[in-house]
Design brief:
Elements lengths: L3 E4 L3 H10 L5 E6 L4 H10 L5 E6 L4 H11 L7 E6 L2 E7 L5 H9 L3
Parallel strand pairs: 1-3, 2-3
Antiparallel strand pairs: 2-4, 4-5
Length: 110
């Protein structure tokens, strides 16, 4: 099984994800379509057998900024953030983002 990427393109969707995080962890992935590093990390994240909420930074800079404001996690791209109960429980950027870490965090093994 591989990742199910879900594009997040509105503040309403983002708010719904923060609400959903009170029921289960939510993975956000900030991705740049023009960055070769981000492309490589996208491939890595695609190995996570879960819903991955995708924010394309070129077209959704306001959402990227909103995520930084709501989580306190400085914007970077590529970047993965896992939200639980409305708070970040994991974040990494660039080559520090690994499928293994995301899977472990989602399964509660970290």
């Amino acid at each position: 099984m591989s990742a199910n990427f879900i594009k997040v393109d509105s503040t309403e969707k983002l708010e719904a994800l923060f609400s959903e995080s009170h029921e289960k962890p939510v993975v956000l992935f900030k991705h740049s379509t023009t960055c070769p590093i981000s492309s490589g990390v996208y491939e890595e994240v695609s190995r996570v057998p879960a819903d991955i909420n995708l924010v394309i930074v070129q077209s959704s800079r306001d959402l990227s900024n909103a995520i930084a404001a709501k989580t306190g996690v400085r914007h970077e791209s590529p970047q993965a953030i896992i939200i639980k109960n409305g708070e970040p429980i994991y974040h990494a950027s660039h080559f520090d983002v690994t499928a293994k870490d995301i899977i472990n965090e989602l399964s509660g093994e970290m």
